């Protein structure tokens, strides 16, 4: 059940769920979870579960929205009705339209769209369980699904959230921190170059705090990247791949 | 400085991974240059060809290239050309002059008498433009209309595995099932014969187990098992 506002969110340098200020929740990632999609993946931050499916590149209709120079990415972010404390009304909402748009824009930064003129790449992300940072989990899952679909990308995207809780900058806000914290700032970077492809902020930070938060977020994104990397390499074992070479 | 290769041949790489440093090597298929680095674009396996670094992806859709033999289904018949679905984001166009040798009086002819909607053809890709207009041709020895039989789809990147070394795998399936089989580069396979079911199962097996060891034995076992 939804808990009431706790008196303090940080007690003796530890957060309510026992994590240190710069500690992330447990991260899990897997690719190739759906058979029917061209590419698929799941990503989990603690209790936040996201699954993504990618279709394409495929023919784009109606014809007049085709771009003869590059592909179009279409993205749908959706929360399952049972994903949160209160039932989420099925269908598009103001929030899901916004998140779909920012996911699409972030993904467009890394996908080599010029390779598939006139085509479309469709990305569907479902949030099965929400506990803060759903857009980060969605983006992490989406980029893995794109890689699984064999779509060329200049880099991956790793994303995590930072926040301000009880006056302290913390990594990966979750649960009550999200509801009663002061600031929530999701951020996504390309791990190789460190380019920021998504940054939103809800609340007020001083310049000093912002710098600190950004530093912390980049550290978190590196951790996410490590998990994504092993998820991608896990699907194909070295031995199997060598067997294919001998064919 | 000098040769700074950061990966080994046949290594697994992920998108964005650095493959080489410096200007000694060249980016090939599936890789690109970012400043002094060559990086991978796809999740796949490194294939070194002298100084060119290619990365072969494990999945992905079929992107036509000239010279490919593809199996397509006629989607639409126009006055002077056909539109062919070639299991790709881009449809193929087969013009009359590339399809029929005889003289055809266009205003007086319904060209669906040559190829009609839903007909299956094996055609050659002759040209692909920058904006991906794909032109097909039937003026090739192997090009023909495929009558009867059935169609099976596999991942296009797994086609070389299905064919095998010098056609060993596909020859084995043909021989043991007695089916006629035509494999298109676009991952469409046409099968006709008395034991289509068995051939289909063998092909599905290749698709599913394509990245594992001892595939030939597995398929051979499957084919022999059904002999009894």
Question: Could you characterize what this model shows?
Answer:
The complex is a heterodimer of chains A (247) and B (228). Chain A has 247 residues and is α+β, with helices and mostly antiparallel strands. Chain A has one domain (25-237): GHMP Kinase, N-terminal domain (Ribosomal Protein S5, domain 2), CATH 3.30.230. Helices cover 30% and strands 29% of the residues of chain A. Chain A contains five helices and eleven strands. In chain A, strands 3-4-5-7-6 form a five-stranded mixed β-sheet. In chain A, a hairpin with a 4-residue loop joins β10 and β11. In chain A, α1 (94-110) packs across α2 (134-148). The longest helix of chain A has 28 residues, at 207-234. The mean pLDDT of chain A is 92. Chain B is of the alpha+beta class and 228 residues long. In chain B, 19% of the residues lie in helices and 34% in strands. Chain B has helices at 96-99, 159-163, 168-177, 196-209, 215-225, and strands at residues 4-5, 12-13, 18-21, 26-27, 31-34, 37-40, 44-49, 52-57, 69-77, 81-85, 92-95, 120-128, 134-137, 144-146, 150-153, 180-183, 188-192. In chain B, the strands form four sheets. Chain B has a five-stranded mixed barrel. The radius of gyration of chain B is 21 Å and the shape is flat. The N and C termini of chain B lie far apart (64 Å). The A-B interface holds A 38-39, 56-59, 68, 110, 112, 115-119, 147-156, 190-192, 229, 232-233, 236, 238-245, 247 and B 10, 12, 14-16, 18, 30, 32, 34, 39, 41-45, 57-61, 63, 89-91, 130-132, 157, 160-161, 164-165, 210-215.
């Amino acid at each position: 059940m939804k808990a009431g506002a706790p008196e303090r969110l940080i007690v003796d340098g530890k957060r309510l769920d026992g994590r240190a200020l710069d500690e992330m929740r447990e991260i899990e990632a897997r690719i190739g979870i759906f058979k029917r999609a061209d590419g698929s993946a799941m990503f989990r931050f603690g209790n936040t579960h996201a699954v993504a499916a990618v279709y394409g590149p495929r023919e784009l209709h109606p014809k007049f929205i085709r771009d003869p120079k590059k592909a179009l990415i279409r993205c749908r972010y959706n929360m399952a009705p049972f994903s949160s404390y209160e039932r989420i009304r099925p269908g598009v909402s103001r929030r899901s339209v916004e998140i779909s748009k920012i996911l699409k824009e972030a993904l467009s930064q890394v996908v080599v769209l010029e390779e598939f003129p006139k085509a479309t790449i469709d990305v569907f992300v479902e949030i099965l369980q929400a506990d803060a940072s759903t857009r980060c989990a969605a983006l992490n899952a989406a980029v893995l699904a794109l890689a699984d679909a064999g779509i060329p990308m200049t880099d991956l995207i790793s994303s995590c959230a930072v926040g301000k809780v009880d006056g302290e900058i913390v990594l990966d806000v979750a649960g009550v921190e999200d509801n009663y914290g002061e600031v929530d700032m999701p951020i996504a970077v390309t791990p190789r170059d460190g380019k920021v492809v998504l940054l939103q902020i809800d609340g007020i930070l001083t310049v000093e705090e912002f710098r600190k938060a950004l530093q912390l977020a980049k550290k978190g994104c590196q951790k996410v990247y490590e998990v994504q990397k092993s998820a991608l390499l896990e699907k194909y074992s070295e031995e199997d791949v060598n067997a294919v070479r001998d064919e | 400085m000098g040769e700074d290769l950061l990966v080994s041949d046949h290594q697994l790489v992920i998108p964005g991974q650095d493959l080489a440093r410096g200007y000694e090597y060249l980016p090939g298929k599936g890789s690109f240059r970012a400043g002094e680095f060559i990086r991978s674009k796809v999740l796949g396996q490194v294939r070194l060809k002298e100084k060119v670094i290619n990365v072969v992806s494990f999945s992905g859709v079929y992107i036509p290239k000239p010279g490919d033999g593809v199996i397509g289904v006629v989607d639409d018949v126009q006055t002077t050309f056909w539109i062919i679905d070639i299991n790709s984001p881009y449809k193929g166009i087969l013009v009359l002059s590339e399809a029929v040798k005889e003289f055809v009086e266009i205003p007086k002819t319904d060209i669906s008498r040559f190829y009609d909607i839903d007909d299956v053809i094996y055609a050659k890709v002759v040209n692909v433009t920058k904006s991906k207009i794909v032109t097909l041709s039937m003026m090739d020895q192997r090009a023909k209309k495929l009558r009867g039989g059935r169609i099976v789809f596999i991942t296009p990147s797994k086609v070389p595995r299905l064919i095998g070394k010098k056609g060993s795998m596909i020859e084995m399936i043909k021989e043991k099932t007695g089916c006629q089989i035509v494999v298109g580069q676009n991952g469409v396979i046409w099968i006709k014969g008395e034991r289509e079911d068995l051939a289909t199962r063998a092909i599905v097996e290749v698709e599913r187990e394509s990245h594992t060891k001892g595939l030939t034995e597995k398929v051979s076992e499957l084919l022999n098992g059904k002999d009894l």
